[in-house]
Amino acid sequence: MIARYLLVLLFMFCQTSLGTESLDIESTDVIEFDKPSVFEDSWVDQMFEYQYEMSTPSSHKAFTVRLSHQLFGQVNNHSIGLPSGQQYQKTNKIEHNRTGINIRYSSAFAPNWLLQGSWQARLFWNQDYEYEANEGIEAEYRVNELFLQRSLGRHSLKLGRQTVVWGRTVGNSVLDVINHTEFRDFSIIDIEDARLNQWMLIWDVFDKQSQFSSFLNLYPEFNPSPEEGSPLYFALPIKLEDTRRNSSPIFEAGARWSKSYDRSDIALMGAYLWENQLQYKLSANELMQARGIKNDFYLLGLSANYASDRLLLTLDVALSRGVFLEKSLLSITSPENITDVKKDKLGISFGFEYGISSTQDLSLSAKMETLVDERDGLKTNQQLVTEGTRGTWLLRYSKRILDETITFSSTLQGDLDGNSILISLRSDFAISDQIEIGYHLLFIDANNDSQMTIFDQDLRLGATLTYFF
Hints:
Elements: H1 2-15, H2 43-48, H3 59-62, E1 63-74, E2 78-81, E3 87-90, E4 93-110, E5 113-124, H4 129-134, E6 138-152, E7 155-162, H5 191-194, E8 198-206, E9 210-217, E10 239-241, E11 252-260, E12 264-274, E13 279-282, E14 289-293, E15 296-308, E16 311-324, E17 331-333, E18 342-357, E19 360-371, E20 390-401, E21 406-415, E22 420-430, E23 435-446, E24 459-468
Parallel strand pairs: 10-14, 13-17
Antiparallel strand pairs: 1-4, 1-24, 2-3, 4-5, 5-6, 6-7, 7-8, 8-9, 9-11, 11-12, 12-15, 13-14, 15-16, 16-18, 18-19, 19-20, 20-21, 21-22, 22-23, 23-24
């Protein structure tokens, strides 16, 4: 069935002038129209370094619009052996059938002033999981990014919806825990694409070889639960309540100092944060309801990198003081359980990025985390989802060919214990400056010791048409 849809989609492309949007952007709140190479900082960091002293551009040039349609879904019928010994049957089905529009506005409307924002809307058609969950055509829209920046001499102030990226190990850093994330679809597999903006005030001070940056977030948000009907969604017999904000003031604040040298730079940072992933505690008074528990902690970090010819080495270290015990993505406990036990967590990320040529990039990274004295204060029969040191590795490769009109990229991600691996292959064809077609293949292999076991042997295929103007 899905193969037939993909053939129809390709035929539509040959007969019309429609276009595609890349799959890892389709359902995310962070919109990146020109994704940097492995040697470039994130576009958020780059924005801090700009001084806007230019004439006001025309309104036409300030807008970038992208219109797309996407089909994506599982193609193989198979069964999964559960730890209980039962077999769970999975059938091929379309998961995404959606039309989207992304609008980005960026204008240096006056000397030393910048206004930037992005907005997205999605229309979900028949067989999309949003359509099935709502029993009809469903629409969604949101403001992703919206900030005003004022630059004056060595100082820069930014107010609005934005992100803070502290890690140097791209996509696999223990320091990128400030903004919350949303993994709502398998088309979002990278932390850069799943990271969500929050309302913040950011102050930067620049020197010749150093930079001081600080942020204040007066309304921290938490990771949303997966959307009903999505591949990551699972039904619960209880109702989850939002965390109660009126019990105490909630804010986040942090500062980062960095210094650059000839071939390297180093940064020190500290922050007061709230854990992005809520835990839920069964209510003793209300039947079948669980309340979200918010938890504040302190983050101390260090990051560094070193460049040599085409090679860039990165290192991130984080000490999180007073985090809840490590549990699954959605953790629910009884009132008398161990939700109030806090631990210190030590994490390290390291990797390299290698520019093979002007058209080829390769990167490899690993992340490891462990709780300090994790069994201290626990009873013998109390078990954690994961114990000891745990971590993930991430491998990326990209190549541009035929005058850079075709881009091939691959992503492999797994855990250090070898219990799961995710393979993502993508190809994008730029037919013109305004039209692009892309294909995406995603495969997952996981055993019973992995939290991804329910997705073992899943194979997903997709195609996207995008029109830029």
